[in-house]
Each structure stands twice: as C-alpha cells, then as structure tokens.
Design goal:
219 residues; mainly alpha; two-stranded antiparallel sheet; 9% strand; globular
Amino acid sequence: MDKEQPIPPDESRWSVYGKLAWENQRFLWGILDGLAKMTSGRSLTQQKIGDYFAACMDESAVEKSGGRPLKPYLDRIFRMKSKRDLPALLAGLHLATGGSGFFFVFASNQDFADSTRVIAFAGAGGLGLPDRDFYTKEDDKSKEIRARYVAHVARMFELLGDSSEAAKHEAARVMGIETTLAKASLTRTQRRDPYQLFHKMDAKGFKGAYARVRLGRLP
C-alpha cells in the first residue's frame, strides 16, 4: 500500500474491497443503532431487531451477568454420565443455539449437482482454531499458537469458576479432542475440491453413516 492508502492498524490487509466491506458494515451498524434508539414508530420486526442489537451492545449488562447465561448449557454438560449421552447433548445444543458447530455443522445449501434444489448439508466442525493445519503443523509458530490457545481455554475455565490446576487439565483435554477432530478433517487445499465435499445420500444412508461414528475414539 502507498502513503495515500495505508493499511489500518487493525487489519492484516487492505484493498478497495476491504474498504467497501468496512463501509457497508458501518452503514448496517447505523441502521441497527438507529432502530435500537427509536422509542416509537417501530414495526414489530424493527422492534425485535433494535432490542436485540441494544441487548448485545449493553456491555455493562453483559459484564454484570457474567457466566450466568451459560449456566443452562453447562448444566446439561455436567449431567452427562458417559459418552453415550453425547449425541442427545449435541442435538440439544444445536437446537438451542441454532447450530454453532459443536463437533459438526448442519445447514442447507444448493445441491452441487442441481442448483434448482436446496438440500441439507452436514460437515465437520468443533475446531476452535481456524483449520486443521493449526493442530498438525510442527513449526515453532504453530506450536506457539497452540500453547497460547490452550492458555486461553484454561483462562475461560477459570472464569467459569474452576481452579487453576483443574482448568489446565481441562484445557489439555479440549486440545486433545480438537486435535483428534482436526486430524480427521480435510486440509484447506482438499476443501477446494467440490468432489471431496459432496457425498450425496438419502436420510437412511445418512443415519447409517452416523451410526458408524465411534465417539469412543475421542480422548
């Protein structure tokens, strides 16, 4: 970039497209902020959008609530007695959160072989770092990133009330599980090949494939 168009300090790269995206986000933010501040004249839909945005932007309320909003979900996890309880737990979490990538993602998209149809898609999920390479590369930078990630996860457990020692143990378990998932995932290059992403099957075939998943292999 030249002196007339420096890269902003909070961006890793910058271009006319990046600037356009930033300006569009600011424009959309203005719409949401305006709906949040309106006290009358809003439609029901505008009220829902504005109130939701206002709640998300209320940092003092978020800080005050702490981990309380997570308690119902954590309680479900703590009630697990064995890995056999995991499928029902994951189903509940996906339904409650709209599908947040717990172990897998499930959504809809155009059929790769017929763009006139929209079908269900299931894919890999469950990684906290951007993709599998962050878990499998052995260079110094990758090792440093993993160490910092484990420290971050441990800190999250501490904020939930766990002791420092327990948090370290739990963070190591999280890294172990995510590494196992990463090793079973496609590389970024492989994911560019649509033939490696598209394995069409009917509901019966999908149930059979799911039944063959062995959760006991997780660490």
